[in-house]
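Open question from group meeting: does this chain pack into something compact, or does most of it stay loose? Before anyone orders reagents, we agreed to write out a predicted structure and look at it together. Recording both the input and the output here so the notebook holds the full record.
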Amino acid sequence: MNKKKYLKTSPVCKVTFSLPKKAVASANNVHLVEDFNGWSETSTPMQRLKNGTFTTALVLQCNRQYQFRYLINGQRWENDWNADKYVPNIYGSENSLVVV
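Structure tokens returned:
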């Protein structure tokens, strides 16, 4: 589930991306892979919390939509279970979408 915090002083939103323990099972690492980082599979690692959830926060420009997915252990793709929307991708599956 993504949490959004709009900043009053600038047109940006702090978005906290979270993937629950149930989705990651016994994962060693999870990366947020998104269109705004060029779909890099390593540039946005997520931190594991004590409860097993993986999380990371980014500041994104408002009035935009961003596509993303989670990459678990460098092998398995997962969408955000509570994304704002889903859009088809070129691989025959869907990407998650966050709207800010």
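Observations to bring back to the group:
The mean pLDDT is 94.
Residues 3-99 form a domain with the Immunoglobulin-like fold (CATH 2.60.40.10).
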